[in-house]
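Quick start: read one record
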Amino acid sequence: MTSLEIARRLVISARTVETHLQRAYAKLGVASRADLAAVLSLPRKPAGIVAPPST
């Protein structure tokens, strides 16, 4: 899906889509949509699960 297609579906500008993508790339240390998809397809721990304190 292109940035323009995403923008039209979400009723935002294509530039806003690009900004969000760039921030996601930076946060995850990737450089492209393909890299982003690869990282997001990796298995990972569910967020918010905290180990109980040890006694």
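Residues 3-38 form one domain.
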